[in-house]
Amino acid sequence: MTGEAAGEEGDRSQASCVHSDHTFALCHLSYALLERKGHKHALPITKGFKDLLLIGNQSCPWIFDLNIRRPPPLYSTIVEVDERVTLVGYTSDPQSEEHKVLFNEDGTVKRGYRGKGWDGQGDAEGPGETVQGISGEAFRILTKPAAPHDQDGPARVSSTADAYLTPILRDYLDGLFQGFDKSLHERTHNAHAPDKKGRAPRVQIMGSDGGLVDVKGFSGLKSILSGPTGGVVGYALTSWDEERKTPIIGYSFPRLCFESVFYNLRDRLDVGGMLTDLDINTVAAGGGSCLTFRNGLFNCGPESTGADPSPACYRRGGPLTVTDANLLLGRIIPSYFPKIFGKDADESLDADMSKAAFEKLAKQINEDQHKHLGLDEIVYGCISGITVVPSRNILMAIMR
């Protein structure tokens, strides 16, 4: 992004703004959401309303499914507070000791939560503010509603999603700023303070609605669909014919995998929406989706290796993934990719590591099934099974 070698910090004094559409952050957030590996947080709620998010709006999108599985909530626990918020203040929790945060000897939290999703209408200013906690200790607010509201359900869903994903996004952004001089990071987080030459730098990242969001106001909730949104906006602007209005299909190959996008304009009006975004349906497994064999079946995902350690062929000790299967099938040609893999980021893709990982999987399969399947059969079998679900999902996405 900056042009310098990894680890080097360049002078960005001439930069007035930085615009970014980073799918890397999207991958982290998507994996955290799908695999339920987001930030542990608690949701304080008025006593008697602990099931509010579980009940939701009582819609039943899977009413005809034979095996209905209710998605678990994003919060780790919910704390019922015996209080009532009014225009002049609120009552304290009479059972503060019950919710007190306890620490281990090494300083880690043994019980309780140091962060929370804030959904009330109190006097807290916003994310990052430290306020008095339930039992008197300092509590750091992770999120507040993204827009004014009078509906508790949608606001709390948004707040928990923000609290679940924003810390992961912030860790990524901190790493992103390491490629710039410290002054840009400090000025960005200091209310757009101007530099020595009087310029106020802007750092903006594409959000789920297709627009650029200032990094200070960028959150996990606003970035969930930022990756595919960038592609949709890009090829819509370059390929959409306003006169003919013919639906178009776009393709991309992020991180050595295949994605397809169907674009069409529809007249739509949402009244009272909490957050704007594009209507996007994901249809396929990514290149980092792990390939496993469990209970006599091939499995693709939902676990993903992510950017670290990456697929096995990246030479970083990662697990077997879709990328490794495509590499062994000849659909990925190592010589077409730069030598940026390995521990020192100076090697090419390693098909031998992919082969070794598949040989280990083949041994497990043959021992379980009491028959011999060749390596080619297993590799092709994995990919064949993977393409069935995306094909069905593409059809459903077009129908929607």
Distance between the termini: 37 Å
Mean pLDDT: 69
Provide the spatial order of strands within the biggest beta sheet: 1-9-10
Order of helices and strands: EHEHEEEEEEHHEEHHEEEEHHH
Domain Hydantoinase/oxoprolinase N-terminal: 32-97
Protein name: Hydantoinase A/oxoprolinase domain-containing protein
Pfam families: Hydant_A_N, Hydantoinase_A
Domain Hydantoinase A/oxoprolinase: 158-384
Description:
- With 400 residues, the protein is α/β, with parallel strands linked by helices.
- The longest helix is centred in the middle third of the chain and has 26 residues, at 152-177.
- The protein has nine helices and 14 strands.
- Helix 7 (322-328) crosses helix 8.
- It is globular, with a radius of gyration of 24 Å.
- The strands form six sheets. The chain has a three-stranded mixed sheet. Strands 6-8-7 form a three-stranded mixed sheet, with helices on one face. A two-stranded parallel sheet has the order 2-3.
- Among the domains are: 36-164, no CATH class; 289-392, no CATH class.
- A hairpin with a 5-residue loop joins strand 4 (102-103) and strand 5 (109-111).
- Pfam families: Hydant_A_N, Hydantoinase_A.
- GO terms for molecular function: 5-oxoprolinase (ATP-hydrolyzing) activity.
- One of its GO terms (cellular component) is cytosol.
- Residues 32-97 form the Hydantoinase/oxoprolinase N-terminal domain.
